[in-house]
Amino acid sequence: MRQLFPTEHTVGQELLGIQVSFFECSGIAIGVCSSHKIANARGRCTFLHGWASIAKCGSSVLQPRFDLASLFPPIGAMPSLGEFTEVSTAMTKVFRFEALRIVKLKAKAVKILTENVKKLLMRSASRNSLEIWKEGLYERMMRRASSK
C-alpha cells in the first residue's frame, strides 16, 4: 500500500505530494499526501472531487474553495509528512474469488435473509392473531357481563 503514496522516497517539509500509479489492468490510483497547513480532510476531498470532475467532464463542474484557514487559522504546526512514513504497521491482504463462488455466496446470503424475514413475518402474524383473539375474547366477555 505504501508504494501508492508519494511519501515513500521523500522525507522533509513537503507541503503537497501527488503520485499517479498505472496498473496493467488499465486501472489507476492517485495517491495524495498533503500537509495540514495546506488543507484539512474536507479540503483534500474537495480537491480530489474537483480533479475527478475535470478529468471526467473536461470542465470544472465543482468550484472548490480553499479559504477555510483564513476563517479559522490553524493553532499550531502539524508534523511534516516524513514523520508519518517512518514506521508502518499496516498490513495488506488480497482475496480473490471465482465468479461462481461469489454467486454461491450471494445465494446463501439471500437464503439466510429470506428465512429470517419469513420467521419474523410468522412471529408477527401469530402475535397479531393472538391480539385479535384476545380482543375478541375480551369483547365477548364484556357483552356477557353487560347482558347479565
UniProtKB/TrEMBL annotation:
Domain of life of the source: Eukaryota
Entry keyword set: Acyltransferase, Transferase
Annotated GO MF terms: acyltransferase activity
Matching Pfam families: Transferase (PF02458)
Entries under PANTHER family matching the protein: F21J9.9
Family: Belongs to the plant acyltransferase family.
The protein's name in its UniProt record: Uncharacterized protein
